[in-house]
Design brief:
Blueprint lengths: L6 E7 L4 H8 L3 E10 L16 E9 L7 E2 L6 H11 L4 E2 L15 E7 L4 E8 L4 H14 L4 E7 L4 H10 L4 E9 L2 E9 L14 H13 L6
Parallel strand pairs: 4-5, 7-8
Antiparallel strand pairs: 1-3, 2-3, 6-7, 8-10, 9-10
Length: 229
C-alpha cells in the first residue's frame, strides 16, 4: 500500500497446485490461464509435477483498494466469462456495445510492444494504440514469432478502447483464442488472447486448483480452434 499500487498480479504455475493455493490464501484471485508459456524441462525442487508438456500458468490478480467502475467494450462472445472473472476479483464494470461509428483510426500504423522471452519460448504482444493496419501488423508479427519457433504467444487488447470490440473477432480468425482478462495492463484493462504454435497440448494435464480456474480452463478449451481439428 505504501507504493500506492492499484493492484498486484501473479502467474501461478499449473503443473502443481501449491502456488495457486497460496494466491487464494492471500485473496489474489484467478482471472485467466496462459497455456504452454514455459518449457516442460522446468523442475521445482521438492515438488513432483508432470514434465510431459510445456508448463501453463494461472493468472491471478488483487485490487489494492476499491476498484473504480469502468466502461468496457468486451466482445460479445466473451461477455459472460469476463463478467464472471471481474466479479471474482471484486469488480463490477459496465459492458457497452459500441456503435460502428466508433470504428475509426487516427493513423495507419498501430503502437505495439512485443516482449520476447527466448529462453522460455514465449512472447507477449501489447497493442497500445490501434492503427488501420492492425490486422496486417498482427499477421506479420505472428508469422515472425512462429518462424522463430516461439511456442506460446499472448496478445493483450485494451477493453477501454471500443475498437477492440470489432477487432478481437477478426483476430480469432487468425487462430487466437480467449485466455482471460487483466486489470490495469500496459494499455489499460485488457482481454487476453493466445496462440499456440505447433504445440501438442493436453488440457487434462493442466492442474487448475480453484473452481474458477477449472471453469476458465474449460472455457478456454471450448474456444481453442486446435481442439476442433
Amino acid at each position: 500500500k505504501k507504493y500506492k499500487l492499484k493492484g498486484i498480479y501473479a502467474y501461478s504455475v499449473a503443473n502443481h497446485p501449491y502456488t495457486q493455493k497460496t494466491m487464494i490464501k492471500y485473496g489474489i484471485n484467478d482471472c485467466g490461464i496462459e497455456l504452454a508459456t514455459s518449457p516442460a524441462t522446468w523442475h521445482f525442487k521438492g515438488i513432483d509435477g508432470d514434465t510431459s508438456q510445456r508448463i501453463s500458468v494461472v493468472l491471478n490478480y488483487k485490487y489494492i483498494g476499491k476498484p473504480e467502475q469502468l466502461t468496457l467494450y468486451v466482445p460479445e462472445k466473451h461477455k459472460s466469462i469476463a463478467d464472471k472473472l471481474y466479479k471474482n476479483l471484486g469488480a463490477e464494470h459496465i459492458f457497452k456495445n459500441p456503435d460502428s461509428s466508433l470504428l475509426k483510426f487516427s493513423q495507419d500504423k498501430s503502437v505495439i510492444d512485443i516482449s520476447l522471452h527466448s529462453a522460455e519460448g514465449s512472447a507477449e504482444i501489447f497493442v497500445k494504440k490501434y492503427g488501420s493496419e492492425i490486422l496486417k501488423e498482427i499477421k506479420f508479427i505472428l508469422r515472425d514469432l512462429c518462424l522463430k519457433q516461439v511456442a506460446s504467444i499472448t496478445l493483450f487488447l485494451s477493453l477501454d478502447n471500443p475498437i477492440t470490440y470489432f477487432v478481437e473477432p477478426e483476430l480469432e480468425k487468425l487462430g487466437f483464442f480467449f485466455s482471460g482478462i487483466m486489470p490495469y495492463a500496459v494499455a489499460g484493462d485488457s482481454i487476453i488472447l493466445q496462440y499456440l504454435n505447433n504445440v501438442s497440448f493436453d488440457y487434462d494435464k493442466v492442474v487448475a486448483y480453484s473452481d474458477v480456474a477449472k471453469e476458465i480452463l474449460n472455457y478456454i478449451k471450448s474456444t481453442d480452434p486446435n481442439q476442433n481439428i
